[in-house]
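User: hey, got a sec? need Tol-Pal system beta propeller repeat protein TolB folded
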Amino acid sequence: MKTTLLASVLLVTGLGLPVTLTAEELHSRIDIDATAGETSIIVMPFSPLSKVVEADLQRSGRFALMDPARAGGNFAPDALRATGAEYAVVGSHSGDMNLQLVNLRSGQVVGAFRIPPHPNERRMAHKAADLVFEKLTGVKGAFDTRIAYVSASGPAKNQTYQLIVSDADGFNPRTIVSSRKPVMSPSWSPDGRQVAYVSYETGRPVVYAQDLASGGKRTISDPNRSSISPSWSPDGRSIAYSVAERGNYNIVVSGANGGGGRQITNTRGINAEPQWADSNTIVFTSDRSGQPQLYKTTANGGSESRMSFSGGYNAGASIAGNSVAMVRQSGGTSSITIMDAATKQERTISRGTQDDSPAISPNGMMVLYATDAGGRNSLAVASDNGKAHQSLYSQAGDVRDPAWSPYLD
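Assistant: Yep! Here you go:
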């Protein structure tokens, strides 16, 4: 099952001392399937940030990126067309970023974008990539978003845990929690301003929520009961999580300020990893049928029904629209599968043998997940068509438990 649940039982607690560490930027490598890219595009150099735009479009799995060197520095449409590209991104960056998207076949400018200055200039490039992506696919881009993940470093029995938030490509990391006791299962509030997570700082897993701007945190779950795997409701007013009682785990929904919790499942075994599919539907993992499968219920409980049937082990749902990313185990390996909840069509998009903890982008077109990279935990991003894969790894230690933010302002 998803690391959030297993880790609740298996992780060894440390010294409980607060620590301060600087977050390390994740290193990145992008691998593209040879058949990727229904649309060919060239991003002409307009500043160092053009490489950020290029990388964003490349990891979407939708585009074949042409090398700007093919144009030999010539921005004339004929020269750009000769590179094999159907579209070109040209522009300038001096304070503002002004870009044009040109259809090289027709010679028409099909998009003109002005990105105002931003203190984080890389976000300007991500915003530009989002606009180009939306213009060409009709789907809102999700490159200008953030991710949260857990970094663990140090000796096995004395590790330091950091809960880190960063840009979606691993740049600009910031540690929001640092502890010698395990931290896990981050979950973004729908406005992207808070993160709920589980910490063992009291000796048992308890759900907290932290404001990213102020650093202030509050306790969400009963500190006298082990609670895991929090998830925010779409309106930000409630948080669902799983609570242990007499060897069983059941789903509880409480107010986002804690308190007022109501139990919405009541079966023996494990009911965990709740995810809100919409304002009144919660998808969760349950082993009531013998092996973990996805089920759904209402926000008030009742009307429970099973929703995953392919394969003997499905867990850890992450949902965006009709797209449901999940962990599927088979034959000693685990991979990430995406299911269309409406058509029930499925496809496996990850390439590892121990892939876990999927976190789907808000537009449902990329999935961030944890993977084993030569004995070290790292992160990876796969496009929903499986054609582009990005590795995100740290040289400082293991990284795991990713969560993808909603769209940001």
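Quick note: Residues 121-137 form the longest helix (17 residues). Let me know if you need anything else on Tol-Pal system beta propeller repeat protein TolB.
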